[in-house]
Amino acid sequence: GYYQHKVKDFREGKGQDPSGLNQAVSKLSVTPAAQQKQQEILKQVEQPFVPKEPPPEFEFIADPPSISALDLDIVKLTAQFVARNGRAFLTQLMNREQRNFQFDFLRPQHSLFQYFTKLLEQYTKVLIPPKSMQQRLRDEAKSANSVLEQVKYRAEWLKYQEAQKA
């Protein structure tokens, strides 16, 4: 929320005045060879971004609904316990708490059921990760460059999408 607001302010020109930064940069003396290298790097960076396909969706993000903190905790903890103890636990819980209004989100017609299901999937992936995810995490842990490339691609994709909307 706060950072999104600050980014929006900066884009609209309401951000902090960067003139102090420009003065500090202008005081630095740079050799001609370093300037030439900077220009080459800038040319590489300024190459136009051509999107191939959208970046993969984030796997572990679920925006919480506007409900009380107690209800949100109940939904989250229930999803954690079901992920840990399996579907049989969910069935027993549904039978035991069928008259308890705090567990109404276990019914498919309830508005929080989709949120509960998404949390359940995410907790299950964390507690019992698939082999492919484990391998991908190992590979990404070994190579910070691959992670940086993914981040850069996502940022460029978002910038491209925003330019298309404008």
TrEMBL record:
It comes from the Eukaryota. Pfam families: Surp. One of its GO terms (cellular component) is U2 snRNP. The keyword ATP-binding does not apply. InterPro entries: SF3A1, Surp, SWAP/Surp_sf. SMART domains: SWAP (SM00648). One of its GO terms (molecular function) is RNA binding. This is SURP motif domain-containing protein. It comes from Phaedon cochleariae.
